[in-house]
Amino acid sequence: MTDWLEHSVQVEVEVPIELVWNLWSDLEQMPRWMKWIESVKVLEDNPDLSRWKLGTGGLEFTWLSRILKIVPHQIIQWESVDGLPNRGAIRFYDRKGSSIVKLTVAYGIPGWLGKLMDNLFLGRVVESTLQADLERFKEYALKAYAQS
Description:
47% strand, alpha+beta
């Protein structure tokens, strides 16, 4: 039995939506701002699929992810098709000169693990990490904007 935990975080980035979209939609660059993501490799023969590797505290997880929906400058939605069960969406909101980036991630953990750990504690760790990832993305986007 799998329990699903879901987290949403967001950040406002003072750069145009086109740049925010271009940076985020280049999935292989994500390890630059996502602390736990070690690598992302888009499959050459099927660009809707990507292989992900996450590592934290000596634990390592991998999964194959499929893009379910893309609306340029608005949303990228995905779900895992093997490995670590997860799904989510990254949404972009144009604020005319700045952009809101909202990340929602849900992941499955075995029921026994959820009972072993305090889900609220696990949730706080994941949520604070995701928020810090978005703050790093904001800095990354601001630097890219300053160089453009």
